[in-house]
Design a protein that fits this description.
This protein is of the alpha/beta class. 25% of the residues lie in helices and 25% in strands. The structure holds iron/sulfur cluster (2 copies).
Amino acid sequence: MTNVAIIRCEKNMERCPLTSCFRCLNDKKEGFANYEDCTLTGVFTCKCPGDVAVDLSKILKAKGAETIHFCTCTFAKKTDAGWSAKDGGFCEKIDEILENIHKETGIPCLKGTAHLPKDYKIKTIQ
Ligand code: SF4
Ligand code: SF4
């Protein structure tokens, strides 16, 4: 069983209650398809400019999180043809944020939760 945490973006916090994120985690689909089994340890909301993400991740680690996923909407947008990472999502610094978290906490970090863009291969920074 892997203890998973999710960090979402404040730019979407009043529009989406992470419904598809949670559904995919429960069903081990999309961003969570590589886990044999996983459970949710906690959820935090990142605030711009993103410096807080390292401290949030340290707390998640202390609470038992073994991996941290950033929501798909941080790096992809919904288009008429489905979700696409071509023009990015809410966060221009998402890769840098993930690198910093991994550097400071050692926790594997992943970009993606629900509705992954077509042909997107989820990568773990570890
Ligand atoms: S990835 Fe989708 S379900 Fe998850 S917070 Fe973003 S818009 Fe909502
Ligand atoms: S730094 Fe990025 S992920 Fe964090 S709140 Fe701002 S846009 Fe969202």
